[in-house]
């Protein structure tokens, strides 16, 4: 998956947005879909980046629960 950018003008300034897709055609299709039915979800207040291999995080979570005596 690659990141594709689209540019536009708003209030006399240039802006851009990114869409993740497998190819340019899919990116354009996603842009059209967003233009037709996108809605406001809210403000992004934080981003959490994690490892590609999420299993390490899962193991840490389970180990922490075990050490704290938390039952599932």
Strand numbers in spatial order across the main sheet: 1-2
The tally of helices reads 2
- Reading the helices and strands in chain order gives EEHH
Per DSSP, what share of the residues sits in E-state strands of 2 or more residues? 25-35%
Radius of gyration: 19 Å
Number of separate strands: 2
* Helix percentage: 25-40%
SS-based class: alpha+beta
Largest sheet: 2 strands, antiparallel
C-alpha geometry: elongated
Could you report the average pLDDT, rounded to the nearest whole number?
91
Number of domains: 1
Spatial separation of the terminal alpha carbons: 36 Å
Unreliable segments (pLDDT under 50, ≥5 consecutive)? none
Give the topology, please.
Elements: E1 2-10, E2 13-21, H1 24-37, H2 55-68
Antiparallel strand pairs: 1-2
